[in-house]
Amino acid sequence: MLRVENLSAWYGEARVLRDVALRVDAGEVVTLVGRNGAGKTTVLRCLMGLHAGQRGTVELDGRDIGRLPTHRRARLGLGWVPDDRGSYASLSVAEQLTLPPVLRPRSSAERTGLAWSLERVFEAFPVLYQRRSVPASTLSGGEQQMLALARVLRMGARLLLCDEPTEGLSPLLVTQVGDILRQAKRHGVTVLLVEQNLRFATEVADRHYLLAQGAVAEALDNSAVRSRERELLAYLGI
Ligand SMILES: Nc1ncnc2c1ncn2[C@@H]1O[C@H](COP(=O)(O)OP(=O)(O)OP(=O)(O)O)[C@@H](O)[C@H]1O
Ligand SMILES: [Mg+2]
């Protein structure tokens, strides 16, 4: 579904990605792990078309999307869940899940039935149902993360790009995010997940890429991550 080759990125003169290559097949959950500053967020920003200084190939379903603006990529089914959670803080939770730009009439997502209904969102995220009438600015960090995830599912994203969705969450909310990702997967959603929690990563994902200094250092399966957990945790500095 997603194929990335020779992806390089710069901040000014500084090169932060070096020929990153990775692929995510339809229906997979794949993680990107790496130390702070390894370039994980930059990879996601490049895929979403949010990073100006980039070069390389980004293909979605065999189509080169590397030069498309962000909104076109979103329309093709890419859904970005940023680590800063960026929400319209003064709107209530329910408003954020119903008002434009979340709902785009006649979008391809609605035609294909991928866009989650409000009912389904509230079923999957009971905490958002409980908090549906309060302004999003009063949500905890974990609840805001849930809301950010819910919004891209409402938009009918087929490929979620999630940047550290479990960061700062209580164990209960981490479990809920895991359930949601597994549920999304069952509904045909594909996920590329930046994740530092290795145990969580092996519970939800099929495969992993280790990013080191802006390059893919290794591709790992779940058994490799489990058997090398100590070494990897030490390397990641967690
Ligand atoms: N706005 C910016 N201007 C200049 N350099 C930046 C900027 N944002 C990130 N960088 C640098 O680019 C490199 C990659 O950053 P990036 O945020 O992609 O890493 P990351 O793996 O997501 O890190 P973290 O685990 O801290 O989220 C780092 O060396 C960082 O210092
Ligand atoms: Mg980051």
Largest sheet: 6 strands, mixed
Average pLDDT across residues? 88
Q: Give the distance, in angstroms, between the N- and C-terminal Cα atoms.
A: 31 Å
Classify the secondary structure makeup into a structural class. alpha/beta
Q: What hetero molecules are bound to the protein chains?
A: adenosine-5'-triphosphate, magnesium ion
**What is the count of helical runs?**
11
The CATH topology comes to Rossmann fold
Described by the principal axes of the CA atoms, the overall outline is globular
Number of strand elements: 10
Write down the Rg.
17 Å
Instruction: Please name the CATH architecture.
Output: 3-Layer(aba) Sandwich
* Strand percent estimate: 25-35%
CATH H-level superfamily:
P-loop containing nucleotide triphosphate hydrolases
Which helices and strands appear, and what pairs or packs with what?
Blueprint: E1 2-11, E2 14-24, E3 29-33, H1 40-48, E4 54-60, E5 63-64, H2 70-75, E6 78-81, H3 93-96, H4 108-111, H5 118-124, H6 126-130, H7 141-154, E7 159-163, H8 171-186, E8 190-194, H9 198-204, E9 207-212, E10 215-221, H10 222-227, H11 229-236
Parallel strand pairs: 3-8, 3-9, 6-7, 7-8
Antiparallel strand pairs: 1-2, 1-4, 4-5, 9-10
